[in-house]
Amino acid sequence: MRKRPRTSVDAAIVNVWRREVGDLSTRNFAHRLGASEDLVLRLDISKRLENHRGCVNTVSFNPDGDLLVSGSDDRRVILWDWQTGHVKLSFHSGHVNNVFQAKIMPYADDRSIVTCAADGQVRHACILETGQVETKFLGKHQGRAHKLAIEPGSPHIFYTCGEDGLVQHFDLRTGAATQLFTCQSHCDNGYVPFIHLNAIAIDARNPNLFAVAGSDEFARLYDIRKYKWDGSTDFGQPVDYFCPQHLIGDEIVGVTGLAFSEQSELLVSYNDEFIYLFGKDMGFGCNPPAAPQVTSDTNIGEMGVDGQVVASPSDSDAVIKSGPQVYKGHRNCDTVKGVNFFGPNCEYVVSGSDCGRIFIWRKKGGELIRVMEGDKDVVNCIESHPHTAVLASSGFESDIKVWTAKARERAILPSNIEKLRPKKRSWMCHMASAEDLLLQLFSLQRRMDSPGQDGENSTARRDLVELIMTFNANSDVSSDDEGDASMAEESRTA
To answer: What percent of the chain stands above pLDDT 70?
Structure first.
């Protein structure tokens, strides 16, 4: 007689019993509950936070998890009580262009917020006892500054990266910016003097290590201990490089998002490609190869769904070479999207998509288990709550969606995911610079050059013509007008 497979409900009952008899600690019980797939399948929108007047580009919880901070194209920063949906504080960031990231510094009584933006500025907002906010200029990048990373547990130290390739170190105690290095290409291609950086992340298990990535195929790992603060050493050499074998040498692909897991694994999201998870031993060291490494006695076939590079089935003696775990199904072509982990021990991987959906995979094995409608256009940001099974997401719409496990029924994965396509190029109205145009040109070229995509070539060519014709009409239209309106309103109310 076959035994009935144990369901998640059965496992939950067993875990409650084990906790009551002392066989399972409260901490481990909470972790098992937070990692339950049943909670993931019951995620639903519990709150819509509406106060911004432009695309919401960043959402982040404070360390305690009771506050959410957001930044937008309207240049405002808002502190939310996300459980009630009420605005705790709203202020102008001081930036003159779209706010790309805002984070609350830890152990600072939620009164210290750092931001970076499309104007390249890095700023610090200090909330006074009176409730007023003082903003201060800290430093600047030559080009847009997409991301910043806070040193875990530090109320003073954080890093930024920008499209100028520069990585900077900030200490709020002195207000000084230290320019660590400009990220250079590992090969001399003659026409790209530096890497346009989109993402930076710090390993919480070892805060001396941080990774950066951008306009080429490599995620680079650095060790801050190798930097001499008197400037006597060249700190620009990474200690490790990470990249899937088949993307080495690809001049079109780039990285839009990075994240470290609690186990020091590195999650890398590529534009117009997939998401990959690298273990610490999967790097190339200080000297990455200039081309994919294929041994003479092995014909490399395709990448399997388990993230391994699998030899061609025609070679019976082929060896399977271990590679990064891959996560597929979403689409990342049009914007600089982040990527993140979910669960108390990073049991899941989450990402937005150009189709306006949120994708959730099991970290182990890469199986897609959940797809959720998160935006009418594009989902760019997904942030996990630090202590419980809660997600916050944002995109082209002006609201923030808070997701909790409140649904009565478990969600079922749609059967037509691969056939779903992003909606008709609504991102065109958000392009405001030549860099945006180049990103889309590279994406369209990659679609036309991809093997087995003959049926999409004519569509890609039409999109290319429409893109070029639309850019000139839209380049003069910016959300700056909206920001000017908000500043004017502030001056009137003042």
So the answer is: 70
d(CA 295, CA 373): 44
Buried b (16+ CB within 10 A) or exposed e, 209-239: bbbbbbbbbbbbbbebeebeeeeeeebeebe
Q: How many other C-beta atoms lie within 10 A of the C-beta of residue 367?
A: 12
- Concatenate the DSSP letters of all residues of 287-298 into one string: S--SS----TT-
Instruction: Please state, in angstroms and rounded to a whole number, the distance separating the CA atoms of residues 382 and 103.
Output: 14
- Condensed to tens digits (0 to 9), the pLDDT of residues 431-490 reads 445 555 555 565 555 555 555 445 555 555 555 555 555 555 444 434 444 444 444 444
Q: Which value, in Å, is the radius of gyration of the alpha carbons in the chain?
A: 23
Q: Which DSSP string corresponds to 456-481? A: HHHHHHHHHHHHHHHHHHHTT--THH
Tokens describing residue 351? 């990402």
Q: For the stretch 292-323, what's the b/e string if a residue is b when 16 or more beta carbons lie within 10 angstroms of its beta carbon?
A: eeeeeebebeebeeebebbbeeeeeebeeeeb
Residues 6+ apart with CB under 8 A from 375: 352, 356, 393, 394, 395, 396, 397
Give the other-Cβ count within 10 Å of 451's Cβ.
5
pLDDT of residue 320: 42
Query: Are the beta carbons of 464 and 443 closer than 8 angstroms?
Result: no
- Which residues are CB-contacts of 285 (< 8 A; sequence separation ≥ 6)? 240, 241
The pair of three-digit structure tokens given for residue 287, joined into one six-digit string? 């000297």
DSSP per-residue letters across 323-369: --EEE-S----SS---EEEESTT--EEEEE-TTSEEEEEETTT--EE
Tell me if residue 163 falls in helix, strand or coil: coil
- Cα–Cα dist 198/102, whole Å: 15
Distance of CA 323 to CAs 32, 246, 254, 277, 284, Å? 28, 11, 19, 9, 12
pLDDT recorded at residue 292:
81
Residue 475's CB is within 10 A of a number of other CB atoms, namely: 14
* Residue 319: alpha-carbon gap to chain centroid: 34
